[in-house]
Amino acid sequence: MESLNRRAVLRGAAGAALPLPFLNLMQSRAADQDSPPPMRFLTLFKPNGVHPPSWNISGGAEHDFRMSPLMQPFSKHREDLLILDNMGDFGFSSHANSTRRFLSGHHQNTRTASIDQLIADHIRGDTPHRSLELTTEGLFPNQIGCSYISYDQQGAPIPRESDPQLVFDRLFRSPLNDPGQRQSMRSLLDRVGEDARTLQRRAGREDRETLDQYLSVVRDTEKRLQTLQSRGAVINPRELVRPERPANLNEQVETMIDLICLALWTDSTRCATYMLGNSNSRMIFDFLGIKKQHHYLSHFFRNFSRENLDSLLKISLWHMQKFDYLLTRLKSFSNQHGTLLDHTLVLYGSGMGHSDNHTVTRIPIVLAGGRGLIRTGRYVRYSENQPLCRLHLSLLHKFGIESDSYAQNSTPLAGLDASDYAAWQDQAFASWIREEGGKLVVRGRLRMSDNLDEAKLFYVDVDGAESVLVEVSFNDFHHFNVAYHCGTAVTLTGTGPTGERKITKIESLESLFGHRPGDAPG
Amino acid sequence: MNSFSFRPCFAFGVLRWPAGRTVLTAVSLCALCAVSRASDPVDDVAGLIRKYCVECHRSPDPRGELDLATVLQGPHDEFFAVWEDVADRLRHREMPPADAVQPAEAERRAVLDWYSTSYVPSLKPRPGSMRPRRLSAVEYRNTMRSLFGFDLEVSVIEAEQTVSEKSLVLKLLPTEPPGRSGFRNDTHTAPLTTVLWEQYSYLADAAIAEMFSSDRRPELLKRLRVSDEADVESDDAEAFLQEFVQRAFRRSLTSEQMAPFVQLAGESAPLSEMQIAMKRILMAPQFLYRGFLSDHSRPGPQRVDAWELAERLSYFLWADMPDAELFEVAATGELADFNELRRQINRMVDSPSSITLATDFAHQWLTLGEVEKNNVEIPQAEALRSQPRDFMHDLFVSDRPLTELIDSRTAFVNPFTRGYYGDDARQMTKYRKAAGIEVEIVPNQKIVLEQTAERGGILTMPGILAMNQGPIIRGVWILERILGEELPEPPPNVGQVPPPAAGETLTFRERFEQHRSNSTCAVCHDRIDPIGFSLQRYEGARYAAESTADTSGRLPSGETFADFQELKRILVTSQRRRVIRNIVNQTLSYAISRRPAAGDQAAIEQITDQLTNNAGTYRELLFQVASSMPFQQTDIPEVAPISEEGDQ
Q: From the list B132, B133, B194, which residue is nearest A220 (CB)?
């Protein structure tokens, strides 16, 4: 035992801790198992949306696409990813609503469980922990819904845990699963029982009553210990080194990701949700050298400066790096049946797309792993926006839950596996530009400027011609939901300075495929 | 109850209410017993008890083993606990039982008033015995912090407008319900459970693990006085444990007392045996409870020993274990000297740890937790919550006169509350928030109220007004929390104040006045309503200068006032002693972490007189309480004989 405590500890770049010999131990032990491992479900939530031009894949086909700048940290996992585009269906959404919708299909679906909980119930088997609900920060009482993605059968929020040591202890140090813990508790009970009886010999009547109460708790605890039996555990939890207290957010998150992987690998649980922060997060990423609040920076249109945008992108990039860290860790556990990632379906994403005007289309959604359930190595762009509840219904089906509908939706999402989704694909279209009565009418694919100094500029790309610049007020940007249309084929009518290919005032904006976004708030 | 002595020599029929309001002591009772004036039964407390209670509560088979017929014969000092119980049950309408004949409201009131204004002040001083009691969650957190030198923290990222529990102790331990004293440090009614046991065990493990973590390793080696882990010998570990166990048990121990906790078995490495020994100390009754280590060899009333006095003082002023200096003056015996006691109190109030007088004591006394329930928006809620906290802390630290609780020219204001303070808020230095911060919690600044007559003191603090919505809740709160009245529960089936009849155009206030014409309601509402309605120009937290609401009223004492300002004047002049008595009673209850008993009442009266006659201040209050008999003395019971079945 003593030598185990002094074990070399593998420290990641930022100092998260996993015991080094443990990895080898797991590979050899788990290799003995004949039956294929169970499928797990894991969710990683990124708060506060994205800067769309940095996240979106512009153009590209299902098997022929280029990862966007923000995807670079996890581009090495390309073959394990299924990137979904044009997910979400509301015009705009509050932080709280978009957060509820992330795993619950619809923000008004407040009386039933989120899908992670339904899946957890279905797949838990005899694992000691039904599920883990994790986060990094406290509660946001001004809009409490920003703090939760997991909801129980009544639709009530499930408390989340942020402390890796507490999670480790719950998983691996409770008397429930640790015979060593039971042994030391038993000898402790003997000793304190003695201490209490010594006091009793010289106590008054009332003192003795209090000591009697103390001793009866000691006896009850002893009895309870006797009834505990170890399950056929894969590992001896004593061989795991308790993580040390993290010094900053990065260490905290990496340690927690280590623990999630350990929990899945040891089959302590099969389902976990982890929020990298509250939606609306006021967090300050001081360890990245940033002094401004994440939420403030996420409103990059209104609070525009190049410095602010750079800070926002640094934060988003860090979120993506944690996704990479998770995938890398999951792959590091393997046996003859494949890696832990093969047997875990990972859902990564955010509750909103454009983080300034809270557009709830083109929400970042990436699936990973889940061998046999989904087909990875693909980029699937739907021509018409797909409500999240469709994805959720499909995921329920993938995990074997026979459900006709979820969140009042009964259409599963096509295209996650080999299924045909041609009906949802973009069609070829002709692009052009015309002048009609002093107005510019242009048809083409709308995109945000790739230049980071131009967060307020948009272009409509026209085949064989110079792109048309769109530079409008925040009012127009918001009113016509320009962010919603980004990435799609549009017909745009507007006015601008004479003689320039530039629109400064929008008159109408319509998508060529799919339905209009409407202005439904959600 | 069968041990009651039977003294048939006097009757109880002379206790009168309200005529003359004679203060009847037990002695005067005896003297008057020959003069039987059992006239109006409403005036006759003993008659009332006979009329409504004795039928069941009498020999040979008294209900609940309570023979009130015997109790009525005295001696009344002996039966304090019984009378306290009778008053409690009358107040909460637990007695007489619902199916029995009920006393009229005025009759119920008459017994309660006799109890509090005549009987209680008549009791003889006598030290109480302190039952061992478990540390409250807050005390446990602070004690662990002092013992280990670090806080047990939850890993959670903190951000503006976000609520996180940073203390691992407060996250894991349940908050105790208030005990009979009204305070959570009175833990007698919150017993140890197996769930609590497991949390204590977990917290002890967490603290020990943190102490042995690599970050704290150098600190640990320093405490062990070695330069390398490999050099740690059993002797080093034992020396460490000797110091640790004495601090943990908060007193100096004999080597015999210490032996089980510090001797290592020598079977494995000293460092790992040391961890096992520390866990035993942290789970021992002597650590988890206060009061197990008093010396029972010399039973009877006596001064508490120096260690217990130091412990009482530190949990009173800091909700924490004594620090090195307090241990030192306990060891030398200096603490027994009242000059030294005063010096220690001043030192301790000056320490940042005395914030618990505001966050724990005043917080519970004035129900400040309710402020948050009305407004969860951060930072507005935090602004309202921090005002009474900073104000109460200032009363102690700046040693203000007691009545400044009600009448003060000091306010603590931040940008979210400045709107309540008119031009006085101009005294504040300008607040500028940093770029990229949307909203943030801003510390209060202390200002002097020169023009804002409608503010100042706890009663008109925005958070308090917003927490107590409506005249009735405001009136009850002031009666109970400021004047120390214990109002009975409203009678069952009394219903609501009826809505105005069709065509009737009574104001809210007039409807209440009509309601008071019902004598059942009037018993309490004559007291509640005038006080509550005096604040009608405060709409929520806001003062409506333009309001024409009728705020005049008449107290049961006959004093009249036109508005709240005049009522406030009455509270700090003719009602001053009542206010101070309540402050004393609340402070003493918290200080001794139990409800004051019969023998403590004399001390309350005496301290109240002292502070009332000498323009007492908050530090003087702390000194008077800490030097009083209930705080300084104890009644140590005899060692009880060991029974055979008690323990296996």
A: B194
Cα–Cα distance, B591 to B360 (Å, whole number): 12
Integer-rounded Cα radius of gyration of chain A: 27
Mean pLDDT of A75-81: 97
Candidates 3.40.720.10, 3.30.9.10, 3.20.20.150, 3.40.50.1470; CATH matching A2-174+240-424: 3.40.720.10
> Which run of H or E residues covers position A366?
strand A365-369
| A chain contacts of residue B296, beta-carbon cutoff 8 Å | 202-204
Is residue B490 very low, low, confident or very high in pLDDT (cuts 50, 70, 90)?
A: confident
| B128-180: pLDDT as tens digits | 887 899 999 999 999 999 999 999 999 999 999 999 999 999 999 999 999 99
Q: Which of A8-17, B331-340, B372-381 has the highest mean pLDDT?
A: B331-340
> pLDDT band for position B486 (50/70/90)?
confident
Chain B residues 195-234 with CB within 8 Å of chain A? 196-198, 201-202, 205-206, 209-210, 213-215
Query: Nearest-CA residue of chain A relative to B188?
Result: A210
Determine, for residues B285 and A199 on separate chains, whether the beta-carbon distance falls below 8 Å: yes
Tokens in use for B321? 């274990």
Residue B35, pLDDT score? 33
In CATH, what number does A432-511 get?
Answer: 2.40.50
From the CA atom positions of chain B, what is the Rg in Å?
A: 28
Nearest CA-CA distance, residue B369 and chain A, Å: 16
Residue A14 is classified by DSSP as T
Mean pLDDT along residues B95-99: 84
Nearest to B156 among A137, A200, A210 (CB): A137
Closest to A280 (Cα-Cα) out of A142, A158, A162, A149: A142
Most confident of A415-424, B5-14, B616-625: B616-625
Tell me how many residue pairs between chain A and chain B have CB atoms under 8 A apart. Answer: 180
Identify which of B487, B490, B478, B474 has the alpha carbon closest to the alpha carbon of residue B578: B478
Q: What is the pLDDT of residue A514?
A: 66
Domain boundaries, chain A: 2-174+240-424, 179-227, 432-511
- Report cis status (omega within 30 of 0) of the bond before B75: yes
Q: Which of B582, B569, B576 is nearest to B621 (CA)?
A: B582
Q: Decide if pLDDT at B37 tops 50.
A: no
Burial category of A302 from C-beta neighbours within 10 Å (exposed 0-12, middle 13-18, buried 19 and up): exposed
Distance, in Å, from the CA atom of B524 to the CA atom of B476, rounded to the nearest integer, reads 9
pLDDT at residue A232, as a whole number: 53
Best residue of A2, A148, A282 to probe chain B, by most B CBs closer than 10 Å: A282
Of B155, B297, B438, the CB nearest to A245: B155
**Residues B568-623: tens digit of each pLDDT:** 999 999 999 999 999 999 999 999 999 998 889 999 999 999 999 999 999 999 99
Q: Which residue bears the tokens 């100042």?
A: B456
CA distances, B553 to each of B46, B346, B559 (Å): 34, 42, 8
- Contact at 8 Å (CB) between B588 and B600? yes
Q: Round to whole Å and give the CA distance between A75 and A42.
A: 19
Q: What per-residue confidence (pLDDT) applies to B496?
A: 75
Chain B residues 319-378 with a CB less than 8 Å from chain A: 376-378
Task: Tell if the CB–CB gap between A141 and B163 is shorter than 8 Å.
Answer: yes
Q: Encode pLDDT of A321-372 as tens digits.
A: 999 999 999 999 998 899 999 999 999 999 999 999 898 888 999 999 999 9
Which of A293, A298, A305 should one mutate to test binding to chain B, selecting the residue with the greatest count of B CBs within 10 A?
A293
Q: For residues A262 and A490, what is the distance between their CA atoms, to the nearest angstrom?
A: 48
- Residues B398 and B394: their CA atoms lie apart, in Å, by 5
- Domain A2-174+240-424 and domain A432-511 have a common topology: no
